[in-house]
Structures are given as C-alpha cells and as structure tokens.
Amino acid sequence: MSESLKISQVLSNLLSNAIKFTPSGGSVLVTADLAGRDLHLSVADTGIGMSAEQLQKLFAPFSQADASITRRYGGTGLGLAICRDLVTLLGGELSVESAEGVGTQFGLRLPLAVDSPTEVDPDPAVDRWPAELGSEAALEVLVAEDNKVNAMVISAMLESLNCRVTLTSDGAEAVAAYLAEEFDLLLLDLHMPVMDGLKVVELVRSHERSHGLAGVPIVAFTADAYDETRQVCLAAGFSEFLTKPALKEDVARVVADAFQVRLEL
C-alpha cells in the first residue's frame, strides 16, 4: 500500500467516524497545518465524546468504546488500532482528546518526504478483467458495509466493473435483501451493527443447504488482515477474503471469479 493511500485511508476513517458519532446539528472540522517538515492534521467533532476509561481501551485491536454505542452507531470502520499502526509505519503519531457530551479531536502528525518520480504502468492489471463482463451490468452484487466512506468507495469500484450494487448498512438488512432478491456476489463487512458478517454467512449457507441452492460467492471485506481471521472466515463459509482498503485490481478479481461461477451454473 502506498504512503498516500495509507494517509487517505486513515483520514477518511477518522472523518467517517466523526460524522457517525456526531448527532444532527453538531459539527465536524478538519484542519491541516505545515510545521517544518511535519504535516499536522486534525479531525474534531462536537459529538458524543468519550470518558477517560473509554479512551484507555480505544486503540485496543477491534475494541469499541462501549458496546451500547456500537449497537447504536456501528463500528469504527477500518479500526483505530489499525489506523494507529498505519501512522506508525509512516513514522508519525496519532493522538486523541475527548470528553463525554463535548466531542472528540484526533491529531495526526506525519513527517513529509520527497518521493522520487516513478513510471506509470501503461497497461495496469486493473484494466485486464475478462471481456465477457461486457458493456452492460453483468453481475448483481450485495454489499453490507456500515462505514459510509468504505461503502461509497467499494460501490464505485464495483459499478466501474459494470456491476449493479445493492447497499445495506448492517447484517440483518443484508440477510433480508438476500432472501428478497437473487445476487451473483455478496460482499460482507465482518464488523457490523445488529448482525456481523460471520452470522450473515452462516444464515446464507444454511438457507442454501435447506433449499438445495448452489453456493453464491461470498467475500469477507475487512480491515483485519490477520491470517487467523482469514482462516476463520473461510471455515465459516466465505469464498474469498478481501482486506481494506481494497485495491481495484483485487475487486476486479473477485468480480471475475463470481462471473465465472455464474457461467458454470
């Protein structure tokens, strides 16, 4: 993953969380400042805020500030622990200040570096997906993703691959949509409010077995890139494992695989 992509993903995740946890009528402010060779970014909101106890466990892998908040608002997208890891890899620092009922401010400090010019591949792999996909929408794709930024990005990628996308924001909505329509591909976030991706895939596979249906390709879409998580997903019934932030060539690959499955049915 390039440095610019790491920064973009971290910033978009912080912004998405700020919007998610700020009730209607509040405000979100993003600022940038250059100090010497350091770039300082700030994402501040007037949202629900956090207590000192919640702040202590905020950067623990896959933890949320409070379970009731997770049920109401959903997860924190990419995961703040992973955001901090990405910032650390870039030689920077991620800090946070918050007060309950007042708001939260994340501070991001990044050292600037001058990149050497690189040659652009005139024929990138992303432009080499199967011609059989055609010029019209070829696949019906169900996306379950509660992070609005991630949902927007993955939907745009799929639509550029001539897919028709149905968006749902939690696992229960995804199951309802699956039972109501036929889809060629399911793309499920693992950490969602109401019902997580593992429960969704369990219900979908159970429905297929009880009705004698062929298995629809189901892709786990998650920021948890650990091999242990991948093995859990595959054992649970997922067909493929896609990590966030997704590259377009990886999305193209799972679309091509799903298209091939449809041709074989």
Provide tags for this entry.
2 domains; Heat Shock Protein 90; 5-stranded parallel β-sheet; Rossmann fold; single chain; alpha/beta; 265 residues
Word description of this protein:
This protein is of the alpha/beta class. The protein folds into two domains: 3-111, Histidine kinase-like ATPase, C-terminal domain (Heat Shock Protein 90, 2-Layer Sandwich); 131-264, Rossmann fold (3-Layer(aba) Sandwich). 40% of the residues lie in helices and 22% in strands. The chain contains nine helices and nine strands. The protein has a five-stranded parallel β-sheet with strand order 6-5-7-8-9, with helices on both faces. Strand 8 (218-222), helix 8 (227-236) and strand 9 (240-243) form a beta-alpha-beta unit. Helix 1 runs antiparallel to helix 4. The longest helix has 18 residues, at 3-20. It is elongated and about 60 Å long. The model is unreliable at 114-129 (pLDDT under 50).
